[in-house]
Amino acid sequence: MYLWLAIAGLAAACFAQDTPDVDTGRRIFESQCALCHGQTGGGGRGPALNRPKLAKAPDDAALRRVISEGIDPEMPGAWQLHPREVGSVAAYVHSLGAVPPEILPGDPQRGEAIYSGRKCAACHMIAGKGQGFGPELTDIGARRNAAYLRAAILKPAASLPAGFQYVAATTAANQSVRGIRVNEDSFTIQLKDAGGRFYSFRKSVLKDLRRLEGQTPMPAFEGQIGGAELDDLVAYLASLKGKP
Amino acid sequence: MKWYAMLVCAAAWAQVPYERIVDATKEPQNWLTYSGNYQGHRFSPLTQVTPANVSGLRVQWAHQFPDRAEVSPLVVDGVMYVSGPNNAEALDVRTGRRLWSWSRPIPKDYRNIGFGRVNRGPAILDNQIFVATLDCYLVALDARSGLERWLVKVEDYKPGYSMTLAPLATRGKVVVGVSGGEAGIRGFVDAYDARTGERSWRFYTIPGPGEPGHDSWAGDSWKTGGGSTWVTGSYDPETNTVYWGVGNPGPDWNADSRAGDNLYTCSLVALDGDTGKLKWHFQFTPHDSHDWDSTHVPVLFEADVRGTRRKLVAVANRNAFYYVLDRTTGEFVAGRPYARQTWAKGLDDRGRPIVIPNTEPSPEGTLVWPNLNGATVWFSPAFSPRTQLLYVAVREIASVYFKRKAEYEPGTFFAGGGEASAPGEKASGAIRALDATTGQMRWEFPMHSAPWAGVLATAGGLVFSGSDEGNFFALDAKTGKPLWDFQTGGRVAANPISFAVDGKQYIAIAAERTLYVFGL
């Protein structure tokens, strides 16, 4: 037994130069990836990675490429990593997939009924149904974990995605537009209002442009929804994985 | 009449002797060297486009490249020369139609370590166009046909040497520098005989055993110490001096193995144009651990300092400080921050930074302004002799720096860490006009994000630059007021130029894969 372990250890040491090292990968992951993907890959601002198949990285080569090159514009590439380090991070991410998937307490079917009863579709879209003011939720279950969804329902302003901005603009003709910023450059800004309509303004000709920092048009459901109802809604959203 | 004009054109087209580049200001219709003149000004003496009429600028023609373009074109007597990674073209400036093209395959095993597969422009001298390639060859092409006249291997690309810069053609010589600061190279500046391609001299940016400065490296760390030279320098024809910026020490973010100042990394070096001998050096960031290459275009100018006329060189550095040095001696004249920085209390009397403790990268991460790409970097500043202002594209951005183990292995990353975006620290950008002699800010034009494009100033009273979101724009050179902008549809990561043909002024900029040429 001990002899076998010693031989295995020796072999591991011999191959250490070339084999990806899960522990090295974990340390790099915790310092450079965990901010968005969570300390143990459970997701957060970025998608959960503790699943056997990753949508944007179906195999090891693709995963290594995503790690070093990133996904424009939401994920920066870790181009400074040595190929061996990239391999180690990939190995660690693969190891996360071996973790059994999270079992959620709620019932997705009941959750779907709560979704329509609570008029979520007035601002969100799922598979083409609803209005496009809030984020598309068609594949939200693939992009966010259950804990994030739960927090976002209860206190949406506390978990705004990076770059999210709610904006109030007043034109020279005194037209007021409130909307989510969909794009911006040094001279112009593009908004989408509650009706899903797009607006484009030259910032220099606006009478007023207010950035409602930390605000969101989504109401906080804390105290309004809880217990089994919340579990069901979260289970429904977590089941939305987009295209199979 | 027409045949006569054509003949004159053909005769004038043939030769760009050194003297023409020295006097580049006298032929403002052309753009004869990377920065427009040897002094690194990126200033056009053309005056047709002004604050009053700039709103009428329209695209005249566009040219598409096969790759992302960071090129600063040359324009000589009606012909534009552009280059990309391992390729070059000559274009008719009136229509953008191609006159010739040249390319050289990129070897399959070539790896770009720590930078993009780009090329920042060609050089011209006499009848030849010079292009530096990714696989580290310097190539001389016949300006009339695009045929290779000579090709010389500058260094082996396999351990990580590469070139992306525009060569600098001086008196009979072509000067180049190398990329590879993340691959543990030993950097150098080389000069080649423009006629034969024979190497005239090499200046190693890291002194070897027995040379002054060698003791600024612990043990054998000098052998893999980096010191790349990947941005085109400036040249003083009066004193035959080449001014060149030197990159970061390696490994970038783990400085444990290289105790000492690590000369001449993160420095400006002044070299004799004939011999490559070091005249002086000035180190901006001793013992750097943030990847703050000092690879910028040095700006040469003259000004009164405390009542005395002095020959100066200015650098807006990646480390967020602006420096003015005496360009004859390298003496520190003035310096101050021009962007947000959290790593130094200031500069001492000799220009050395007073470093704040615990600002170096760490295993758990250290938050520092600016980020590793710095407050500004390779993209050019502009200097207007009319306003005496230096215009610089500024990046206001922080990052969390990590330190990790670094083991040297030829041809791979030798960086020892990296950076991650700083949560909650809002990044932005600006074009800032600095008093060239003091660095004091005169105006700024705020930008939506940290830019990656250079600046052009014109005698017409304008400043041009671009943004990451694809805006190409003109500002009033005196006030910074935005006067015109155009959405190019691609990230602007290049330097603008201006030229004229048939009496009409043009402004050119590359954005993503397209070169746009604007005129009234």
Question: What brief labels describe this structure?
Answer:
heterodimer, A: 244 residues, alpha+beta, Cytochrome Bc1 Complex, Chain D, domain 2, SH3 type barrels, 5-stranded antiparallel sheet, two-stranded antiparallel sheet, 9 strands, 36% helix, disordered N terminus, B: 520 residues, mainly beta, Methanol Dehydrogenase, Chain A, 5-stranded mixed sheet, 4-stranded antiparallel sheet
Assign the structural class of chain B, choosing from mainly alpha, mainly beta, alpha/beta, alpha+beta, or little secondary structure: mainly beta
Strand content of chain A: 15-25%
- Give the number of domains of chain B: 1
Which CATH architecture of the largest domain in chain A is right? Orthogonal Bundle
The fourth-level CATH homologous superfamily of chain B is: Quinoprotein alcohol dehydrogenase-like superfamily
Q: Give a short account of the largest sheet of chain B.
A: 5 strands, mixed
> SSE order of chain A, as H and E?
HHHHEEHHEEHHEEEEEH
- The CATH first-level class of chain B comes to Mainly Beta
Describe this entry's structure for a reader:
In chain A, a hairpin with a 3-residue loop joins strand 1 (70-71) and strand 2. Helices cover 36% and strands 15% of the residues of chain A. Chain A is globular, with a radius of gyration of 22 Å. Chain A folds into three domains: 12-97, Orthogonal Bundle (Cytochrome Bc1 Complex, Chain D, domain 2), CATH 1.10.760.10; 108-160 and 218-238, Orthogonal Bundle (Cytochrome Bc1 Complex, Chain D, domain 2), CATH 1.10.760.10; 166-211, SH3 type barrels (Roll), CATH 2.30.30. Chain A is of the alpha+beta class and 244 residues long. Chain A has a five-stranded antiparallel β-sheet with strand order 8-7-6-5-9, with no helix packed on it. Chain A has a two-stranded antiparallel sheet with strand order 1-2. A two-stranded antiparallel sheet of chain A has the order 3-4. Residues 1-17 of chain A have low confidence and may be disordered. In chain A, helix 4 crosses helix 5 (83-97) and helix 6 (108-117) packs across helix 9 (227-238). Chain B is mainly β and 520 residues long. Chain B has one domain: Methanol Dehydrogenase, Chain A (8 Propeller), CATH 2.140.10. Chain B has two helices and 38 strands. In chain B, strands 1-32-33-34-35 form a five-stranded mixed β-sheet, with no helix packed on it. In chain B, strands 2-38-37-36 form a four-stranded antiparallel β-sheet, with no helix packed on it. In chain B, strands 3-4-5-6 form a four-stranded antiparallel β-sheet, with no helix packed on it. In chain B, strand 4 and strand 5 (87-92) form a beta hairpin. Chain B is globular, with a radius of gyration of 21 Å. Residues 1-14 of chain B have low confidence and may be disordered.
